Amino acid sequence: MKQGIRERFESVIQQSDLISRDLSWLKFNDRVLDQSKKEHRSIFEKLKFLAITASNLDEFFMIRVGSLYNYLDYEKERVDYSGLREEPFKSTLMEECQKFHDAQHTHFTENILPKLPEEGITLCNISKLTEAEQKKVKQYFERAIYPMLTPMVYDGYRTFPILMNKLLIFGVVTTSPGERKDMRKLSFVQIPANIPRFFEIERANSLMLIPIEEVIREHIVSLFRNVDIQSISLFRITRNGDFTLEETEDMDANFLEEVKRKLMERKTGRVVRIEIEEGYSKWMLNSLLERWKLKSDSVFHVKRQSMIDFTGLWQIVGNKRFKDKLPQMPDPVKPLSYQEEGEVEIFDVLQEKDILLHHPYNNIDSILDLIEKAADDPGVMAIKMTIYRLAKESRITRALLRAAENGKHVSVLFEVKARFDEENNIREAKKLQKAGCFVIYGITHLKTHTKLLLIVKKDGDEITRFVHLGSGNYNEDTARLYTDIGLLTTNEVLANDVSEFFNVITGHSMPTTYQNLITAPRDMRNQLIAYIEQEAENARNGLPAGIFIKVNSLEDSETIYALYRASQSGVTIKLIVRGICCLRPGREGLSENIEVISIVGDFLEHSRIYHFHNNGDTRTYAGSADMMVRSFDKRLESLFKVEAPLLEKQLMNILAYNLKDNFNAYVMQEDGTYVAKHPVGDEPVFNVHKEFFNLDPEKVMEVQLMPS
């Protein structure tokens, strides 16, 4: 982009009161990449975070850039929060993506590759191997790889082949002997996804890793006999994976078929990015650009000493040889409100008090045990739950199947539109349906993102409803990596609210009100704005006023402007936003009283907490909803009020600890950039991802977010 145009675009961006969602997301991935650069991390942690940035970027291109192309290709108007129209915004976005791509590969080649030999790892091509090792590679190619490769030629007689999303592909330009060079043909060889990224050769004290593309490149001539190879180019494409399901009244078989059809479209969606290794054929690349209607800014060049697709680094991170090299997470601690964990019957405890779980510091087994016991307890009559994502080998699916076999009523809403988990959810849902469970495949035009569980248990003449409400998925795998909140309760007010909400989800019911539940798409935005405006009113009346919110993303403009108005009224506002933040903090006359931090570290921050000071009569909510248009308008969501004094203090303490962190925290600047937070002077290091393993119940009860 020319300098003058770049400066003009930047001026428009900085004048906007809002920050672009997509540009903000790139800043988030910057923070993830920064984790890979931290000196205190082992080389394996650095590889892990680099791989995460790569999978993040793949999804960004498939969904966000794919969505942008939906506007461009169909000539629909769109004005980004930055103030830029479609084409200027795409140019700006691609320039930022190119910068990030360069930062990734510079970090890999300059900081990671030179350190690998210190850990007994060498990434190399075949020329660095001994003769015996080269023979071993050749045997591997001939026996395991060669039969799986299919050269696909494109010429005047054959149609252009379907090249698959996110696979490594060789583009091979050939001519027949004696033919002119302008009679060249282009063939493609795709490397199947089920071939390991590296071929491993064990040496006495080291592990040699040969990228699979080097194995194939060395022997690719065997696929093109009796022709002349003019060039061999390695590339990878990313396709548009963004789709919106059409609204339909048919909720069953046709709906599932629609989802399956859209999943197939992902494989043939328009190309939005090309990653290509240096030394490529310019004729081939130009042919691809013309065919896919792409400009050069969508081409990302990779040097030979680097590698295409850093997600392949998971093979190194997950190698059993290096298991002890990764940091071990401390054992979970008992919840402050459930010190009897593992010693008493959870059904009995919940009859007496509520339990707040904070994962991964507290074990998810409390929830899994509750569901498993419910499946076998003769007193349990019904289990209802919403499911967004499950572990591959889910204990929950097994428990629900057993509950159905034991004659209990089991109702499950499986969200089959959970992005990239659709196929797994459809498969698990069908298992339950065959077992006699009542299964709903999502609400057609809404995603069900709320996390709810209701167990109905009879004990003599007494009926008790056991409820779990959470911010995280019922997934025992991610529960060890994500920070989430879960409330277990028999509180009748919440139980009534949840029962009513299940009737909305599974039937045709529209309750007039909930007491301790805020739901979307109906009420959530308006209710949160009302609470924000109440704080603003209190501040104008000279009363103490404060708003403390922790979310994954903050993007909804209506709530952002409500926060701006509250700031202008003098409300203290502190926001903990892990990822996208479209609010611009600290701008004079707009948001001087708003501070924003982002926590990025060992665990993925996934919990959502909303706390309003309310002149001392505090309102504290937790749940699954972010402050996003999709959360408020396009999803079934819920936030639940936490009233028990110890549990509310725990949530307040989570906010306080996050704000105190000086190890994983990044402070957002007015221009949308972030600065890492460090201890000041003699201030001790405070790492929130360690401190929650060492909670002091007495100190938790003393926590204050506002000065007394």
TrEMBL record:
An intermediate of this reaction is the autophosphorylated ppk in which a phosphate is covalently linked to a histidine residue through a N-P bond. One of its GO terms (molecular function) is polyphosphate kinase activity. Residues 345-509, 517-679 form the Polyphosphate kinase C-terminal domain. Residues 19-123 form the Polyphosphate kinase N-terminal domain. The active site is at 449 (phosphohistidine intermediate). It comes from the Bacteria. The keyword Magnesium applies. Its EC number is 2.7.4.1. Mg(2+) binds at residues 389, 419. Keywords: ATP-binding, Kinase, Magnesium, Metal-binding, Nucleotide-binding, Phosphoprotein, Transferase. Residues 133-316 form the Polyphosphate kinase middle domain. It holds the Pfam family PP_kinase. ATP binds at residues 56, 482, 578, 606. It is an enzyme of class 2 (transferase). It catalyses: [phosphate](n) + ATP = [phosphate](n+1) + ADP. Its cofactor is Mg(2+). HAMAP family: Polyphosphate_kinase. PANTHER family: POLYPHOSPHATE KINASE. Belongs to the polyphosphate kinase 1 (PPK1) family. Catalyzes the reversible transfer of the terminal phosphate of ATP to form a long-chain polyphosphate (polyP). This is Polyphosphate kinase. It comes from Algoriphagus limi.
